[in-house]
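R.M. (postdoc): so does anyone remember the format we settled on? I'll just put the structure tokens first.
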């Protein structure tokens, strides 16, 4: 069910369709408006009604309304373009032209709007999920929750000291805040929460957890960096892209993988 901006809740698509049709009819009668015929614009409809059509109902319900109301049905394509512009901020004419140019195939406005809505949904789902693989472990982030599975000998699953060497079933990693993204090294993992805080766990023999020590950590510990947006890991080192644009590096650097010059005789950095 959908809650309207005001008034009682809408109980069904049929109820919403009938209510909006009655609203449109009364609005037209009171304001002495006419619904434009095919080829005309919908700019003459009241902005409040436009807003409600675009936000109160689902796209399928708007189409149902248009099809059930004779006057609107005659201008279905213009109604769809109008709903896309007012409710989604989408220029369907430009989108259809771009699709035609790229693929050589034309799409009607209704199909294009459904396609764009579906595309936006898929992108949103993709952005809410992340997957990373280490040498023998995996971490996936879905809807703010991190799950890990695989080898646990160095604490790389982030669930405390392992009772078993391998965990084949994805299990939640205990975190105090929702997780935005993940990166995995050989035997360590790095998580970034939605507020930009960086946590790491697992093998730390070269300081790849960025904690200032070389002790392994079977549970997430805060890395000594500022708020971050992205992370990447090599086998024994970690890189973090901070929100201010700086890149922080820690762990093994004997082969130059940290991007900095280490002191003679030093082959690692315990702090970023």
């Amino acid at each position: 069910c959908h809650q309207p901006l005001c008034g009682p809740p809408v109980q069904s698509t049929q109820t919403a369709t009938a209510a909006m049709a009655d609203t449109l009819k009364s609005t037209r009668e009171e304001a002495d408006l006419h619904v434009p015929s095919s080829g005309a614009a919908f700019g003459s409809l009241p902005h409040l009604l436009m807003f409600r059509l675009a936000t109160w109902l689902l796209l399928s319900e708007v189409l149902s309304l248009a099809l059930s109301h004779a006057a609107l049905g005659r201008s279905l394509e213009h109604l769809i373009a109008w709903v896309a512009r007012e409710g989604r901020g989408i220029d369907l004419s430009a989108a259809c032209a771009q699709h035609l140019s790229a693929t050589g195939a034309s799409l009607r406005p209704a199909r294009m709007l459904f396609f764009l809505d579906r595309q936006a949904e898929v992108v949103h789902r993709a952005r809410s999920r992340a997957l990373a693989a280490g040498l023998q472990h995996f971490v996936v982030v879905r809807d703010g929750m991190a799950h890990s599975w695989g080898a646990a000998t160095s604490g790389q699953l982030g669930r405390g000291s392992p009772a078993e060497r391998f965990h084949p079933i994805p299990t939640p990693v205990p975190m105090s805040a929702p997780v935005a993204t993940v990166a995995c090294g050989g035997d360590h993992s790095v998580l970034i929460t939605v507020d930009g805080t960086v946590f790491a766990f697992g093998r730390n023999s070269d300081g790849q957890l960025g904690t200032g020590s070389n002790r392994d950590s079977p549970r997430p510990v805060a890395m000594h960096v500022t708020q971050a947006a992205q992370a990447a890991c090599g086998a024994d080192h970690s890189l973090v892209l901070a929100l201010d644009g700086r890149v922080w590096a820690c762990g093994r650097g004997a082969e130059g993988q940290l991007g900095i010059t280490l002191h003679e005789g030093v082959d690692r950095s315990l702090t970023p």
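R.M.: ...and that's the designed sequence above, right after the tokens. Also worth knowing: The first strand starts at residue 129 and ends at 133. Helices lie at 13-31, 47-55, 59-68, 70-73, 76-88, 92-103, 109-127.
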